[in-house]
Amino acid sequence: MDYIQGIAILIGINLIAVLGLSILTGFTGLFSFGHGGFMAIGAYVAAIVSSRLNLPGPVALPAAILAGAAAAAIASVFIGKLTLNLKGDYFCIATMGFGEAIRVILNNIDYVGGARGWANLPNLTSWWVVLVLDVVFVVVAWNIINSRQGRNMVAVREEELAAQMAGVDTFRSKMIALVVSAALAGVAGALMANYIQFIRPTMFNMAKSTDLTIMVIFGGLGSISGSIVGTILLVSLPEVFRNFAQWRLVIYGLAVIVIMVGRPSGIMGGVELTPSGIRRIFAARRAKARLEAELKAAEQGEVA
Amino acid sequence: MTEAIPLLELKGLTKRFGGLAAVNNVSLKVGDGSISGLIGPNGAGKTTIFNLITGVYKVTEGEILFQGKPIHNHEPYRIACGGITRTFQNIRLFKNLSVFDNVYTACHRSAHYNLLDSVLRLPRYWREEKQLREKASGLLRIMGLEERQDISANNLPYGLQRRLEITRALALDPKLLLLDEPAAGMNPDETENLMRIISEVRKMFNISVLVIEHHMDLIMGICDHIHVLNFGCTLADGTAESVANDPKVVEAYLGAEEVTA
Fold it and tell me: What ipTM does this complex have?
């Protein structure tokens, strides 16, 4: 039971980071390979708050989470100012550099344990805290996406120049997406530090960043429900196949490849698993069928 | 044009890409409520002028005044919000969004709720979202796209994509609409239909239009005023008849067709 709960907590923690990344990558169209760096900032700042400040019990975790999120958000503002004007792949490479830089810096700070890591952190993250935060952040992400700010992000993803011509401050839209995603990565890092009780820089390396991005893509770009499904599947998959020892990583890789080949838009690319989301698919199909029928009728009329 | 302040005025506008002057010392005025045409052979600098007006390119020299105020080198989104919107030569829609969402997205300037209102879904969010949806529906109805509002934009036939792009541009309540070859790739029927739409839109929304076009019937049919460019320089400027009869224009532009014909 404890084992199952442990996996559930890991899914919940990863989900928070993935939700943020879903807004940045899935909805705004910016690919990041450095969100492990924001998680690291969140984790280390939270660890300092929860284990060095001697805060009273009930305040410790909220303070750690807030501090971790704020630190990651502030870092993202600096990074954003420097990199958000870069196009496509260049932004991606810059975030990769940022993630690695954070890891190397942490390797060299003895106050937080350096490369050896930092053990004996307090265990504050409980199952229900993760559950409540998951629900809160799913709602937050959903509300952002379904607002004018969220639609502006999607406009940036779809056609940046046209978005500008439609009066969208594209830099600002990208910045909001980046800061929100970094803050959520910070929250995830804070929860992680106070759950595993041991952190070290390599936990937040590029592999971690890519893991998060793969969960977003696997679940489907531009879909909150897809990100949830993707996170649940990809975090639990290696655990389900734990008996196969190192083969489980092969299975993980295969699953990703199968999805990329068979369904390039991810499990639920652009589609939401909600009543209104499903209605939209059918409305679009109906409207398209009607248009095609009318065009065909018009053509036949012309011929006749 | 004799009014005191023209809606849009370009003064000695120059844009150089390295050593090449794509636009060289061009001055032109767009009067309030007018439909003006911008014509010229390929490579004359027409689209470059649009890109300068809308802030996509930085101006090398000269001034762009909109309602008497300089707007050159402003951020593109500020110019768009200030009242100049455009369409593109190669259509740029939000392809994977529905027709409705294309317009809905562009209506965003009519709402003022902030991110906190969105996250917490405060009353202001609900009130203004409702207004935005009504505005988008209204525009689609006026432009005859209501029946197609659920279709994703890339599934629309070509002519309707053009119309959707114009609708999206209107969603910002512009004072000046820039149309970059709106009739490109259209047959005569569709072109005529488009002319009618442009004239109606101008009247209904009380806006001015500046249009780049190669279809001479469209330009001659609807424009009050025509500006002719060649190699980045102004060649002629005046009413449709005066431009059409200008020997320089005939030589540079219309004349070429006569030779091949």
Answer: 0.90
